[in-house]
């Protein structure tokens, strides 16, 4: 797997940090501007978060208020209930993700000819080269190092903390020193308020013809820079960092790169998409690819889409390791991250993870499992404090340091967001469906998620009918008489879907019939007079149909409970609800969530329309990182990371014992091939090729089974042996 489709290149440096080229190992990240004689490399660490006093925040104790809250909601006094659910009403934010510092490389300016900067997805290398020199950088997944090789003559290496939005009172100290014959460059920063962490540190070992020059280092000729990062909680740990770097005092760039690519490259190479793009278009620089799409905003540009698919997998892999991707992945070049740059869990995180299992990136779900494992005890505390319940209640956002639920306000009643644990556990359950790996500890968590939903299930009618009170369809609510959304409500469709799935899984895992009986007591979904699936299964509610979230389509995606094959009437109602939903502010997560639901409902035209809201609306930077809104407003990884899943789901959909080829083919992509996708049911699509009127696939099942394969041109049933490739083909 080589060639231009697996990299992006540019003819000019980045003017600002969002266009800087990206590399990462799931812990450290770098943003390389690419200026020949005045390079700026922003370094990031997944755990660099600014103390703000909420590290030790705990969920409010609201369980005693629940009977009153429920009475108010059932009496349609929902605004009063929201105020009670908000605790003290003060909206507290997570600790904000922030950049570390900037490594600077400065030299006397000279002529710049034959300039090119590029990032190689298959190796994770960012390269800047011109006729007078070159630099190569990567972030080692094996050795946990930032590595840069310079070959540009005489220059000076320094460190600066001069980044946009830097808080008043944040103090940087920079020093260069020699120890045991080696030259080091150290940067430390002290937070304005200490909190549990009082600062962060970076240490760089410089090798080559290097000499200390004040608080920087002079380099004359080729040199190697190796950097490590830390965020201590008790004392500076410079000695340990120094020992780590000294262990690499004799390492060569090529050897370090080979150790890194031994882990990175096989992961990246598992999946490939070919959209039959002409070779000349694949050779275009990234600026021209974006310009082509901008010139035809109502038509998918296959060359750009193909590149975005590969860039999305590369960025998702690079951002996942000690933690899964944040709102900004692993990268940030300013101190003013939108929404604290945290993990927003009611939509964004799961949408970014949508590619992980299908696009064969277990490294990503492993990172997500680390986040859950570290916080599941806090989820138990949330459930007990707020509801007096067993099980798991997840927060709507976390900074990665804890999972306590405290982000509450009358307008943001996340204490009423009941299905969060189920939603966040689903990618780990899906991994089991895709790979067949034992659930292990996830099985217990899934049962605990069901226990919480069982404990908060409430009698809502004189006939013993059950439902969920309070309930919250993030981040909206039924409209009141004035047309204002009041968020706390009864029976959000997402709650019902999560509970039904949770109880069904718990029944299978425990063998306890109690779960089956509980599932039977859940209210049915509702369909309104217009034939659309409603957002709440409760009479009299009016929906804000121009809202960015589509949580009520949870039974469509990701659960697949509602689908055209098994539940055609409900699928029609869900499709009607999806087509009726407006776009509010055209946020990336909203469009991609709609696109994933459209693919499950076999509407390729609607998938294409939602993709065009993003690619046709100037939402990608020259790094191919995405924005949250059109016009490249707000650096945000949702679109970049979720887009590969949208393309995969439009091309193949697997379920245990069943596989559908081209379930939602995109009108603008008439031919191509897809390789290496893994589907629920433990079937790998080794290769899928399609053209007008024909589709062919080579499939491998991990277990012997009877497999039904459907396509737009017919279907077949095959008895397949484990591990033996099977080819199927259909023509129209």
Structure description:
The protein is α+β, with helices and mostly antiparallel strands and 732 residues long. The chain has 17 helices and 32 strands. Strand 22 and strand 23 form a beta hairpin. Helix 9 (362-387) packs antiparallel against helix 10 (420-435). The longest helix has 26 residues, at 362-387. The radius of gyration is 26 Å and the shape is globular. The mean pLDDT is 96.
Task: Jot down its keywords.
single chain, 732 residues, alpha+beta, 14-stranded antiparallel beta sheet, 6-stranded antiparallel beta sheet, 17 helices, globular
| Uncertain spans | none
**Average predicted confidence as pLDDT:** 96
Radius of gyration: 26 Å
Number of helices: 17
Biggest sheet layout: 14 strands, antiparallel
Quick one: how many beta strands? 32
Shape: globular
Structural class: alpha+beta
Task: Give the N-terminus to C-terminus distance in angstroms.
Answer: 32 Å
Strand content range: 25-35%
What's the helical proportion of residues?
Answer: 25-40%
SSE layout:
Blueprint (H helix, E strand, L loop, with lengths): L6 E4 L10 E4 L3 E5 L5 E8 L3 E2 L15 H9 L3 H8 L10 E2 L3 E6 L9 E5 L4 E6 L2 E8 L4 E7 L2 E7 L10 E9 L2 E9 L8 E15 L2 E15 L7 H9 L6 H16 L3 E3 L4 H4 L3 H10 L6 H17 L24 E2 L3 H6 L8 H26 L9 E2 L21 H16 L5 H16 E3 L6 E3 L24 H18 L3 H7 L47 H13 L7 H13 L3 H12 L11 E3 L3 E3 L2 H14 E4 L2 E4 L10 E4 L1 E3 L3 E9 L2 E8 L3 E7 L2 E7 L5 E6 L1
Parallel strand pairs: 25-30
Antiparallel strand pairs: 1-8, 2-3, 3-4, 4-7, 5-6, 7-12, 8-9, 9-10, 10-11, 11-16, 12-16, 13-14, 14-15, 15-16, 17-26, 18-19, 20-21, 22-23, 24-25, 26-28, 27-28, 28-29, 29-32, 30-31
């Amino acid at each position: 797997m080589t060639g231009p489709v697996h990299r992006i290149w540019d003819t000019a440096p980045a003017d600002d940090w969002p266009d800087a080229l990206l590399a990462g190992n799931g812990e450290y990240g770098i943003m390389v501007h690419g200026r020949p004689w005045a390079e700026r490399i922003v370094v990031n660490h997944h755990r660099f978060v600014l103390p703000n006093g909420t590290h030790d925040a705990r969920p409010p104790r609201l369980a005693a208020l629940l009977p009153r809250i429920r009475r108010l909601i059932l009496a349609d006094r929902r605004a009063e209930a929201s105020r009670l659910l908000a605790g003290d009403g003060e909206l507290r934010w997570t600790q904000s993700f922030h950049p570390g510092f900037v490594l600077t490389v400065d030299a006397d300016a000279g002529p710049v000819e034959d300039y090119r900067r590029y990032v190689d997805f298959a190796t994770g290398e960012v390269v800047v080269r011109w006729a007078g020199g070159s630099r190569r950088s990567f972030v080692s997944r094996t050795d946990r190092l930032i590595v840069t090789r310079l070959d540009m003559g005489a220059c000076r290496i320094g460190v600066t903390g001069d980044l946009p939005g830097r808080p008043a009172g944040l103090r940087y100290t920079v020093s260069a020193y020699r120890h045991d014959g080696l030259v080091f460059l150290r940067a430390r920063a002290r937070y304005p308020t200490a909190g549990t962490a009082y600062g962060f540190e970076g240490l760089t070992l410089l090798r080559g013809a290097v000499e200390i020059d004040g608080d920087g280092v002079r380099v004359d000729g080729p040199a190697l820079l190796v950097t490590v990062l830390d965020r201590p909680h008790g004392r500076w740990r410079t000695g340990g960092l120094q020992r780590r770097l000294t262990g690499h005092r004799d390492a060569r760039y090529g050897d370090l790169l080979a150790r890194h690519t031994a882990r990175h490259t096989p992961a990246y190479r598992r999946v490939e998409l070919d959209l039959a793009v002409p070779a000349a278009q694949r050779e275009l620089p990234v600026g021209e690819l974006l310009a082509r799409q901008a010139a035809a905003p109502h038509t998918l540009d296959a060359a750009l889409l193909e590149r975005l698919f590969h860039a999305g997998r590369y960025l998702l892999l690079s951002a996942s390791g000690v933690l899964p991707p944040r709102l900004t992945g692993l990268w940030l070049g300013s101190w003013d991250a939108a929404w604290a740059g945290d993990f927003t869990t009611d939509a964004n995180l799961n949408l970014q993870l949508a590619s992980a299992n299908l696009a064969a990136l277990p490294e990503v779900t492993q990172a997500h499992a680390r986040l859950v494992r570290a916080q599941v005890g806090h989820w138990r505390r949330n459930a007990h404090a707020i509801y007096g319940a067993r099980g798991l209640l997840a927060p709507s956002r976390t900074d990665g340091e804890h999972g306590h639920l405290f982000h509450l306000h009358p307008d943001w009643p996340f204490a009423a967001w009941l299905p969060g644990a189920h939603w966040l556990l689903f990618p780990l359950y899906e991994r089991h469906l895709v790979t067949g790996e034992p659930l292990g500890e996830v099985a217990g968590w899934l049962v605990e998620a069901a226990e919480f939903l069982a404990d908060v299930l409430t009698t809502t009618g004189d006939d013993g009918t059950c439902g969920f009170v309070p309930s919250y369809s993030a981040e909206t609510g039924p409209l009141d008489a004035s047309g204002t959304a009041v968020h706390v409500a009864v029976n959000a469709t997402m709650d019902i879907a999560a509970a039904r799935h949770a109880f069904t899984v718990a029944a299978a895992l425990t063998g306890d019939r109690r779960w089956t009986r509980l599932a039977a007591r859940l209210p049915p979904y509702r369909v309104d007079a217009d034939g659309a699936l409603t957002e709440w299964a409760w009479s009299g509610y009016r929906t804000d149909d121009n809202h960015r979230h589509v949580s009520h389509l949870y039974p469509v995606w990701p659960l697949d409970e509602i689908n055209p094959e098994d539940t055609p009437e409900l699928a029609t109602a869900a499709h009607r609800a999806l087509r009726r939903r407006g776009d509010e502010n055209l946020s990336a997560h909203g469009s991609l969530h709609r696109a994933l639901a459209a693919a499950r409902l076999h509407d390729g035209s609607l998938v294409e329309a939602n993709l065009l809201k993003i690619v046709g609306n100037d939402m990608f930077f020259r790094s191919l990182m995405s924005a949250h809104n059109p016009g490249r407003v707000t650096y945000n990884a949702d679109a970049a990371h979720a887009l590969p899943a949208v393309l995969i789901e439009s091309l193949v959909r697997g379920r245990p014992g069943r596989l559908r080829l081209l379930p939602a083919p995109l009108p603008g992509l008439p031919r191509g091939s897809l390789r290496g996708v893994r589907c629920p049911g433990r079937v790998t699509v080794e290769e899928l090729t399609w053209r007008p009127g024909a589709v062919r696939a080579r499939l491998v099942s991990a277990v012997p089974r009877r497999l039904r394969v459907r396509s737009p041109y017919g279907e077949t049933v095959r008895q397949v042996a484990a591990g033996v490739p099977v080819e199927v083909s259909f023509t129209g």
